[in-house]
Specification:
Cytidine Deaminase, domain 2; 2 domains; six-stranded mixed β-sheet; 14 strands
Length: 285
Amino acid sequence: MKSDGAALRPAGASQATVTPHRAGGTERSTDWLADEVPVALVFNGISHAVMLATPADLDDFALGFGLTEGLLAHASELQDVEVHETSLGIEVRMEVAGACEFRLKERRRNLTGRTGCGLCGTESLEHVHRALPEFQLSSRRIRIAPAAVGRALRSLRAAQALQQSTGAAHAAAWCSPDGEALLVREDIGRHNALDKLAGAMSRTRVDASQGFVCVTSRASFEMVQKTAMIGASMLVAVSAPTALAVRIADGAGMALAGFARHGDFVAYTAPERFGLTPVAPLSTD
């Protein structure tokens, strides 16, 4: 139980009556639950994806999903967004440029499925891997101090209103080089939270090369891919990365860290960009 019901309703949460049992005692109380709603993303009348998501920041979600999935080449191709609640869920209806509609029809992906299911419904293997920006130019390869990771974690945690109220939300943050979380978005799905952040960054015209992304989840292949698609060259994750995520990050020139907890972390690529200098060579014995 995260709330006594006296606080204002957090965005994306609903109140419920609960019966907690603690320290041998039982009592009736109230709690906040994270909302989980089917959200259909509709491009020029074409329903492209249905995701289970938290119904907050849906304009950011629509824009960010379009950008990180490579459907929108740039934000200006999204001309209008309307959110419509129905008896079955929510439709986010987007008016997009003809070029975006052409890409959509060419790909014809259907991601209808579970929260965070990632590649659910992808029609062919060629749709899994997309061409990613390569962060080879020194101007796009920022460096941070190790202390910035700890500050980012603390700053992100303090901004997670939905998680603090419900205990059921992921978050993604855009952080300055010194670790201040400048933009934060939450959702029950880790991919959705990152898409919402991507949309918010685009709307506020953030220079994605001048900071880093911090997420409360593992660093899967798709989290790395989405981060690269928005032009960010550094990703910090609370949990572990996958082997594929590390390979993709390394190939794109992205600095990737995982197991970020209380200021500690593991650099999986580009340790020097996290201010790390190994004290001894890796043994091959």
